Write a sequence for this structure.
């Protein structure tokens, strides 16, 4: 959506996932202002820290799949770094050959 300011566009997204054990469903919601700039023949998207305190806005909610009650609600920045690191570690573990002893990392951002 167009943003209410000239800064960029507004983006709202949600992501959901669930586990059997423990019986939990998680929902992550992001509410972002994104600046679009042209650089050569590319469009660069930059997420702005537009909320008070120059922060991003995202929240994670956890629910029990046994009784349906909410279990927790917290800012997504609390677990974001751990989530990214653990998902990359699992990907490296299960996608690498069994006899691999060395890893090279290119374009890690």
């Amino acid at each position: 959506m167009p943003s209410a300011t000239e800064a960029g566009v507004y983006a709202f997204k949600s992501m959901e996932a669930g586990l059997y054990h423990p019986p939990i469903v998680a929902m992550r919601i992001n509410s972002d202002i994104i600046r679009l700039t042209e650089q050569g023949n590319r469009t660069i998207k930059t997420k702005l820290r537009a909320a008070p305190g120059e922060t991003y806005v995202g929240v994670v909610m956890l629910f029990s799949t046994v009784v349906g009650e909410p279990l927790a609600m917290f800012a997504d920045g609390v677990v974001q770094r751990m989530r990214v690191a653990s998902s990359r570690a699992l990907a490296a573990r299960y996608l690498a050959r069994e006899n691999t002893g060395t890893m090279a990392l290119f374009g890690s951002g």
Notes: Residues 9-95 form a domain with the ornithine cyclodeaminase, domain 1 fold (CATH 3.30.1780.10).
